[in-house]
Amino acid sequence: MSHEEFPTDRPAVVTCGLPYANGDLHVGHLRTYVGGDVYARALETLGQETAFVSGSDMHGTPVAVNADKEGVSPEEFALEWHETYKETFPQFDIEFDNYGHTHDETNTETTEEIVRELAANGHIYEKEIMVAYDPIEDQHLPDRYVEGTCPYCGETARGDECDDGCQRHLEPGEIEDPVSSITGNPAEYHERTHKFFEVSEFADYLTEFLDRLEGTSNAQNQPREWIESGLQDWCITRDLDWGIDYPEDAPDADGDDADDLVLYVWVDAPIEYISSTKQYTDRVGSDTYDWEQPWKDDGEIVHVIGRDIIQHHAIFWPAMLNGAGYVEPRAIMASGFVTLGGKGFSTSRDRAVWADEYLDEGFHPDLLRYYLATNGGFQQDVDFSWDKFRDRVNTELVGTLGNFVYRSLLFAARNYGGAPDATVSDEVDERISEAVADFEAAINDYSIRKAGNAAIDLAQFGNEYIQRNEPWKLTDDDPERAEQVIYDCVQLSKALAVLFQPVAPETCQRLWAQLGEDGDVADATVAVAREAPQGEFDEPDELFAKIEPERVEELNEKLEQRVEAATDDEADDDDADDTDDTDNDTMTDDTTDADTDAQAADLESLTEERISFEDFQDLDIRVGEIIDAEGVEDADKLAKLQVDIGHEERQLVAGIKQLHDLSDLPGTRVIIVANLEKAELFGVESNGMLLAAGDEADLLTTHGDAPIGTRIQ
Question: Which GO terms describe its cellular component (predicted)?
Answer without folding.
Answer: aminoacyl-tRNA synthetase multienzyme complex; cytosol
